[in-house]
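Hello forum,

I keep getting stuck at the same step: I have a sequence, I want structure tokens, and every attempt I make locally crashes halfway through. Rather than fight my setup again tonight, could one of you with a working pipeline run this one for me? It's a single chain of 75 residues.
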Amino acid sequence: MSSKGRTTIIVIITLVWALNFVASLAIPSYNAPPEINSIFMGVVGTALATGPIASKRRRNGEEDPQEPASSEGQS
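Reply #2:
Ran it on my machine without issues. Output:
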């Protein structure tokens, strides 16, 4: 999937998530299932972790902050 397509999907999902949140505040009778927040968070988090930000870091040669720095050449 292209970076632009992935970004578009992330934006759409985030907007739906935000609308769900606002609806729960604005409409007293609306009760979204609590699991929906976990689902949205998982989808958007995974998309962001594997999407444009990670790709940009790889292109720029930056190290992954989760991985320890290599110790090559150090005694």
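Residues 3-26 form the longest helix (24 residues). If your local run keeps crashing, start a new thread with the error log.
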